[in-house]
């Protein structure tokens, strides 16, 4: 008997498309299944101003495959010099959907991020007034804080103080990876949401490190202990509207992943929905998949849900290409290491 599941078309609330040849290589993989995605602004140089976001959106539209029906939701990269008026104008015109906060040095291309959080207070206050959400990469960067503790420490030292100082600011904790993140969101009112990635729902740090180091499993925030993964799966499959899908699909050329110093990021876009159906089925929660992928994100962002649907069917294991060509390079598709039986029809 074929098992099938029809859900409203999903959106991806955290996605890296990059630029140039990489953009052209990876955009079809998301546009095939998703209707919209929040496009991360951590290009080199970053997308800081409204004018830069408009130009980047044009480049994405130019790279769009024939016949695709996909809307990029643009973001601005917050710096200590960001002009509140520029943010307000870009938001009012519908050009941007949110602003992204990277602590300086926390992750890929975050060097222009924020060092002194007091300096961005005027922008955050303006965003609270106009209802523009803030997306946050939630990790401290202090050398003395262990990399596995950086999310938990960020919540106490940075995020909670920012939220208390800026009432009305709507915040998305991007790619939460710990029970601490889950618990913090659970205590907050509905002005706080969280995205969860595919790899953090499927894997823990043993999967990355035991028996040899797997560079394609390395992303930031780094995979954590098993108990944290269990907390993320429980949150994602709970039906609680505050947790929704942000794949954080983050392509790097294969040579930059399989390198002496491996770049952080997992390219999951081609298999994201197959992996999620696998995870939700294992948790006996397939009935909760649609909320996570297609309903709760729009609710947080105050956008309509998509009109059309997709159908997932269960059958023979999916054949996943190992790499995709990307200009002069390749990009390696994230390999979950288990057979995936769910595929998106059409
Ligand atoms: N998640 C990652 O490991 N990498 C992302 C950046 C980010 O989302 O932190 C990237 O841009 O490659
Ligand atoms: Zn991040
Ligand atoms: Zn990301």
UniProtKB/TrEMBL annotation:
Modified residues (N6-carboxylysine): 100
Metabolic or biological pathway, per its Swiss-Prot or TrEMBL entry: Pyrimidine metabolism; UMP biosynthesis via de novo pathway; (S)-dihydroorotate from bicarbonate: step 3/3
Chain positions recorded as Zn(2+) 2 binding sites: 100, 137, 175
Superkingdom of source: Bacteria
Gene Ontology molecular-function annotations: dihydroorotase activity; zinc ion binding
Family: Belongs to the metallo-dependent hydrolases superfamily. DHOase family. Class II DHOase subfamily.
Protein name: Dihydroorotase
């Amino acid at each position: 008997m074929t098992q099938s599941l029809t859900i409203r078309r999903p959106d991806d609330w955290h996605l890296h498309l990059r630029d140039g040849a990489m953009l052209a290589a990876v955009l079809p993989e998301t546009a095939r299944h998703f209707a919209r995605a929040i496009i991360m602004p951590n290009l080199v140089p970053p997308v800081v101003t409204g004018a830069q976001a408009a130009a980047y959106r044009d480049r994405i539209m130019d790279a769009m495959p024939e016949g695709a029906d996909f809307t990029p939701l643009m973001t601005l990269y917050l710096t200590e010099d960001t002009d509140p008026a520029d943010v307000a104008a870009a938001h009012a015109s519908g050009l941007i959907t949110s602003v992204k906060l990277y602590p300086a040095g926390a992750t890929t291309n975050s060097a222009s991020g924020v060092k002194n959080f007091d300096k961005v207070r005027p922008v955050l206050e303006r965003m609270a007034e106009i209802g523009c959400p803030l997306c946050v990469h939630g990790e401290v960067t202090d050398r003395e804080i262990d990399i596995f503790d950086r999310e938990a420490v960020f919540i106490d030292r940075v995020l909670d103080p920012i939220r208390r100082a800026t009432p009305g600011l709507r915040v998305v904790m991007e790619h939460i990876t710990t029970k601490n993140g889950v618990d913090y969101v659970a205590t907050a009112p509905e002005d706080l949401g969280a995205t969860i990635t595919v790899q953090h729902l499927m894997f823990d740090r043993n999967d990355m490190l035991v028996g040899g180091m797997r560079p394609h499993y390395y992303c930031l925030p780094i995979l954590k202990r098993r108990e944290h993964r269990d907390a993320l799966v429980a949150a994602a499959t709970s039906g609680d509207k505050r947790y929704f899908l942000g794949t954080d699909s983050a392509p790097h050329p294969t040579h930059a992943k399989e390198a002496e110093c491996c770049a952080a990021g997992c390219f999951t876009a081609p298999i994201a929905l197959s992996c999620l159906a696998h995870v939700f089925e294992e948790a006996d929660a397939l009935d909760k998949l649609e909320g996570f992928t297609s309903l709760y994100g729009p609710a947080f962002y105050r956008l309509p849900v998509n009109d059309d649907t997709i159908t997932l069917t269960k059958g023979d294991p999916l054949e996943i290409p190992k790499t995709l060509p990307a200009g002069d390079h390749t990009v390696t598709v994230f390999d979950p290491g288990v057979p995936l039986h769910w595929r998106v029809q059409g």
